[in-house]
UniProtKB/TrEMBL annotation:
This is Polysaccharide deacetylase. The keyword Signal applies. Residues 210-420 form the NodB homology domain. InterPro entries: Glyco_hydro/deAcase_b/a-brl, NODB_dom, Polysacch_Deacetylase. SUPFAM superfamilies: Glycoside hydrolase/deacetylase. Transmembrane segments: none annotated. PANTHER family: POLY-BETA-1,6-N-ACETYL-D-GLUCOSAMINE N-DEACETYLASE (PTHR34216:SF3), PTHR34216. It is found in: Secreted. Keywords: Signal. It comes from Haloferax denitrificans ATCC 35960. One of its GO terms (molecular function) is hydrolase activity, acting on carbon-nitrogen (but not peptide) bonds. The keyword Signal applies. GO terms for cellular component: extracellular region.
């Protein structure tokens, strides 16, 4: 569980430092491995990671607003109130609420003279109480409503999380060196109640260049037969989320193929999928599944990718995040789009690569704003909703055209792990 709040050099608010998936449930066979008392703490466990990445990254960058002075914020829709019992850090957060009669809850803060976010990415601490899942949108007026950048992230109710806010839509020609207003909203459409808490809006230095990670869930056969040769022709590595207890099935990547792909620079990472999402498993079962999946990777020679997890069905809750933080440095969810600097490493968002236009839009944002765009695929067959081989090749050609650096989970982690 995240706790505490670290001050980074006592800098004033708004002042930067010196320059520096939706997938159908598949019943899983009984896991091949079992471990005694998987619910115990990971202290001393040889499979545990060296440190909790969520704790290390939670206060990266510099403070834009700590929500300690609620008078700085106005309301466009819904309502907000000071909350002293549910806080990320400091003495209070803001509780935002929309009733069934409201279409949204929407607050804003203005900045006299504007603030410079031209070389920064934003993150916001959010605790969603209801509904179970929703999208949070942050709008930057730069300098006015005719020139805006819309940022956003999807979130599950899972205690405090730091949402890394990536670009979603551009209006006009926003000048991010002159941001005069920041607004935060959750849209419900009416007919339901929404309640969530916000705290600690921070900015981190923007990366020098855009990156793309190409991920595949479920270790399906077409990832080896079709996607692998296409990526090899470009010199691109990929990331496979392996369901360990399915390895050896005829419609999965053959065991020898997994070795071949790893030898070419690919990562085999954990994808501990059961018949239920992690939101439906007990904390003990969550921990057992996470540990067993990592153990299989380590025992089978895939240590390089074993420190990373792709969330089954893209879903998680607070206890699942706690367990994953004991065994993994990075976790990838189903939705989220491009993101900048990582502030909550267990919930890195991805873009559905089956939608070629959506994937290209995410890649454009990655190139324009130096973001990380993580593309998500399952089958590469063209059957059902899956991307066709030709469409997949088209997207990879576009990655080449944009000149984006293609990273894996392990190479990306090596590039950021010591940045805070």
């Amino acid at each position: 569980m995240l706790s505490g709040c670290v001050a980074r050099g006592g800098e004033p608010a708004g002042t930067p430092p010196a320059p520096p998936t939706s997938e159908p449930p598949t019943p899983a066979p009984t896991p091949r491995f079992s471990y005694d008392d998987p619910s115990v703490d990971a202290a001393g466990d040889p499979l545990a990671v060296a440190f909790n990445s969520r704790e290390r990254f939670r206060d990266a960058g510099w403070l834009v607003d700590d929500f300690e002075d609620e008078r700085l914020w106005g309301t466009f829709a819904g309502r907000y109130a000071v909350e002293e019992d549910v806080v990320y850090c400091g003495s209070q957060s803001l509780r935002l609420e929309a009733t069934p009669a409201d279409e949204r809850v929407w607050i804003y803060r203005t900045f006299d003279g504007g603030i410079d976010l031209s070389d920064a990415d934003l993150s916001l601490a959010v605790n969603l109480e209801t509904p179970d899942t929703e999208g949070i949108t942050v709008r930057l007026a730069a300098p006015d409503y005719d020139n805006t950048l819309l940022l956003g992230r999807h979130v599950w109710a899972a205690g405090w999380q730091r949402l890394d806010l990536g670009p979603r839509r551009v209006t006009g020609s926003p000048d991010l060196s002159n941001v005069t207003e920041i607004s935060i909203q959750l849209y419900t459409g009416g007919g339901t109640t929404a309640r969530f808490y916000v705290d600690s809006l921070r900015a981190t230095p923007r990366a020098d260049a855009g990156k793309v990670m190409i991920t595949f869930d479920d270790n399906t056969r077409s990832q080896y037969d079709t996607a692998y040769p296409i990526l090899e022709s470009h010199g691109f590595p990929g990331v496979v989320g392996v369901i360990p207890w399915t390895v050896g099935s005829s419609h999965r990547i053959p065991r020898s193929g997994m070795d071949e792909m790893v030898d070419s620079g690919w990562d085999m990472v954990s994808h501990p999928q059961q018949s239920d999402s992690f939101r439906d498993l007990s904390p003990a079962d969550q921990r057992a599944s996470i540990r067993e999946s990592k153990a299989w990777l380590v025992e089978n020679g895939f240590e390089r990718g074993a420190d990373f997890i792709i969330w089954p069905y893209g879903r998680y809750d607070e206890s699942a995040l706690d367990a994953a933080s004991d065994y993994h440095y990075l976790g990838f969810v189903t939705v989220g789009g491009p993101t900048g600097a990582i502030s909550d490493p267990q919930i890195v968002g991805r873009t559905d690569g089956d939608d070629v236009q959506k994937a290209k839009r995410a890649l454009d944002f990655a190139a324009q704003y130096n973001q990380l765009s993580v593309l998500m695929y399952h089958d590469v067959t063209g059957k059902g909703r899956s991307v066709s081989p030709a469409a997949f090749a088209e997207t990879m050609d576009y990655v080449d055209e944009l000149g984006l650096d293609v990273v894996t989970a392990s190479s990306y982690w090596e590039s950021i792990r010591d940045t805070v």
